């Protein structure tokens, strides 16, 4: 989230006049991030976030609006979009698609506490129970089909050993998931790293940045969370955080037998998903703007650790 399209106070004040949110008091550009222009907007009534969409598939924005509004209606801590007086959320500003959100409280947890992990696991479990009934559909843009099609583009930039590692892994995933029964499906966040959450102490202020949101295997979402929230710097799993998140999650949504069977492979596949996507950003498809990309090595390390040490045992499901 950075400022690629500057806006004047007058432009934003005129934009806000379509909504019942009060009058502009202050406008602040938000630094950091990778894809969109973001401002913090203060009115005489509330704190808001204004996002302009700089790239990506704009025709998919209605899906994100519908998903956020659906989760917000079900009392999940997400920024449901602000609709104008005619009930419309998606607008155009400075010739870019624009959405207005409530500003949620909190900061990104750098080193999550045990309670923050419990709350995150519980909330993700709640979200997945609700999201199984979400009527929208957007195929997972980073699933096994994408890995199969795209990993060839990165091979030339890898050592011989890493080429073999990546090709062997994709072949294994094809064998495992090609023959597995369909896993439980629903709407996913798709990128639920620590920096897409906001905490005030141990209270979850919100889950943000749903622009990788899609529909697909719920287990994919959970594996992304574990690989970020419950991994030590050297790539190995942190047993305490792992157990806390998975116990809290399963009190809301116990994993099926099919999910439990493929869990170690799903952890590996989601690690490779980020290793590959970060390689592609550096070598094949750099962002339109001059930003520092994430380091692919982090997820190569995680993948190697999952291969060497496996997954920790899954806690048994227990109901609240």
UniProtKB/TrEMBL annotation:
Keywords: Amino-acid biosynthesis, ATP-binding, Kinase, Nucleotide-binding, Threonine biosynthesis, Transferase
Residues covered by the Aminoglycoside phosphotransferase domain: 28-255
MF (Gene Ontology): ATP binding; homoserine kinase activity
EC number from the UniProt entry: 2.7.1.39
Keyword Ubl conjugation: no
Pathway, per record: Amino-acid biosynthesis; L-threonine biosynthesis; L-threonine from L-aspartate: step 4/5
Enzyme class: transferase
Biological processes per GO annotation: threonine biosynthetic process
Coiled coil: none
Catalytic activities: L-homoserine + ATP = O-phospho-L-homoserine + ADP + H(+)
NCBIfam families in the cross-refs: PRK05231.1, thrB_alt
Protein name: Homoserine kinase
């Amino acid at each position: 989230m950075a400022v690629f399209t500057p806006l004047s106070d007058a432009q934003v004040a005129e934009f806000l006049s379509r909504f019942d949110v009060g009058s502009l008091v202050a406008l602040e550009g938000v630094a950091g991030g990778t894809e969109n222009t973001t401002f913090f907007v203060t009115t005489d009534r509330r704190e808001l976030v204004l996002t302009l969409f700089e790239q990506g598939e704009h025709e998919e924005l209605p899906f994100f609006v519908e998903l956020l509004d659906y989760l917000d209606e079900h009392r999940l801590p997400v920024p449901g979009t602000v609709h104008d007086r005619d009930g419309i959320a998606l607008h155009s500003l400075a010739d870019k698609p624009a959405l207005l959100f409530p500003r949620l409280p909190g900061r990104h947890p750098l080193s999550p506490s045990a309670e923050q992990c419990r709350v995150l696991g519980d909330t993700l479990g709640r979200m997945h129970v609700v999201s199984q009934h979400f009527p929208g559909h957007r195929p997972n843009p980073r699933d096994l089909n994408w890995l199969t099609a795209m990993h060839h583009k990165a091979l030339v930039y890898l050592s011989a050993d890493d080429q073999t590692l990546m090709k062997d892994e994709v072949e294994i995933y094809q064998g495992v998931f090609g023959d597995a029964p369909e896993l439980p499906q629903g709407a996913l966040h798709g990128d639920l790293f620590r920096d897409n959450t906001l905490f005030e102490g141990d209270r979850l202020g919100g889950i943000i940045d749903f622009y990788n949101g899609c529909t697909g295997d719920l287990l994919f979402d959970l594996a992304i969370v574990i690989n970020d929230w419950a991994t030590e710097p050297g790539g190995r799993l942190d047993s305490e955080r792992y157990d806390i998140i998975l116990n809290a999650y399963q009190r809301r949504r116990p994993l099926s037998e099919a999910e439990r069977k493929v869990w170690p492979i799903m952890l590996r596949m989601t690690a490779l998903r980020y290793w590959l996507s970060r390689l592609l950003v550096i070598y094949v498809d750099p962002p339109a703007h001059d930003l520092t990309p994430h380091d692919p090595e982090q997820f190569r390390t995680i993948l190697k650790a999952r291969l060497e040490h496996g997954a920790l045992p899954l806690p048994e499901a227990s109901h609240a």
